[in-house]
Amino acid sequence: MREVDEALRQDQMLGAARQYGRPVGAAIAAALLALGGFLYWQHSQDAARASQGEKFTLALDSVEGGQLPAGKTALVPLTTSGPQGSRAAAAMLAAGIALEQGNRTDAAKGFAAVSANSEAPQAYRDLATLRDVATQFETMSADQVIARVKPLAQPGNAWFGNAAELLGMAYLKQGKPQLAGPLFAAVAKDKTASDSLRARTRQLAGLLGVDAIDDVAAPAGARAELVGAPQ
User: Fold this and answer.
1) Residue 104 — φ and ψ, nearest 5°?
2) What is the per-residue pLDDT across 197-207, written as a single tens digit (0 to 9) for each?
3) CATH class for domain 22-139?
């Protein structure tokens, strides 16, 4: 009986193998191919990122060495290939080179392109917006400046200091020093802002008759109120 049972089980296993062997084998082969393809793609992506980073570093070295044309040429292919963050960084640096060369038109176009790129990281888009506005500030109307930088001039925003300075200057363009002064004072008291920015806005606030040193009671409420104040 045991021999009969063993023979029966062998027949059942052979039958199952004949019936399901090929589909199961094909599924396993497909899974292995998919895994191999994913590993290859991952390796390719890592290699591409490494190559992108190396090329960007070489371009940056050229810029820091004063070789602006060479740096700009090296950046051109990096603005159209690779991860969006790398593209945005390359485009920002290329626009900065144009600005350094005195070509404000090309610089503004470069910053505006990054600012309008919905696929670029938000931090790059915000910085590009500020650089674009700063580059074109003299030719932009106060209303245009306010519309673009006011969303960034919010306490707690990473770009609050720079955006609030531009917003304050736009308010001065509109003849509204009562809005600009407290904004400058708020930036001067912002511990996260750079020392140069704080010193500059402290001086501007003082010229407008706003104490940016001793008055510590007002900034929180005033800053929030002024940032959201109507134009």
Assistant:
1) -70, -30
2) 999 999 999 99
3) mainly alpha
Phi-psi region of 156 (alpha: psi -120 to 50; beta: other; left: phi over 0): left
Which range in 53-62, 82-91, 192-201 is most confidently predicted, on average pLDDT?
192-201
Write out the two tokens for 7. 């023979």
Residue 56 near residue 78, CB atoms below 8 Å: yes
pLDDT higher than threshold 60 for residue 146:
yes
pLDDT at 175: 95
Closest among 162, 164, 175, 176 to 219, alpha carbons compared? 164
pTM: 0.66
Annotate 63-108 with DSSP letters as a single string: HHTT-HHHHHHHHGGGGSSS-HHHHHHHHHHHHHHHHHTT-HHHHH
Residue 43 is predicted with a pLDDT of 54
Residue 15 predicted with pLDDT over 60: yes
Residue with tokens 């599924």: 27
CB neighbours of 115 closer than 8 A, spacing ≥ 6? 125, 128, 129, 132
Give, in order, the Cα–Cα distances in Å from 93 to each of 23, 55, 71, 163: 54, 13, 9, 20
Computed from CA positions of residues 154, 157, 160, 166, in that sequence, does the dihedral angle turn out positive or negative?
Answer: negative
Where are the chain's structural domains?
Answer: 22-139, 143-231
